[in-house]
Amino acid sequence: MLVDANIFIDVFGNDPVWKDWSLSQLKAQSFKQDLVINHIIYAEISLSFTASEQLDAFLEEARIVVLGIPKDAAFLAGKAFAQYRKNGGTKTNVLSDFFIGAHAQVAGMPILTRDVQRYRAYFPDVPLVTPTMQ
Questions:
Q1: Residue 111 in contact with residue 1, Cβ under 8 Å?
Q2: Which CATH number fits domain 2-133: 3.40.50.1010, 3.90.1170.20, 3.30.1360.120, 2.160.20.10?
């Protein structure tokens, strides 16, 4: 399962609304399947650490694997971004959600996330575990 950065940010930042849900999902999902992040998510959650060694130690302790983004997923992310722009999207660089969604689609992994909108719109076949499913 690919774990979106917002789940970690909820936990690291002690989010008063989402921390408990995110932490419980991390625990529950870790019993069902391997938890995975990619380098995009790694960069996003690195903001909560002062050194890469600290982040790496956390990931190792939590048994979370860091995978590179396959070339096919990077290509698909670009295509999804092009569709986003065609649909009126205003961002000028490929957004992290497109890399994450494409990686999940190519690898056949679900995503644990609170950000549903872009994944549903551009990667409708990727299974999502979200608060709305509870």
A1: yes
A2: 3.40.50.1010
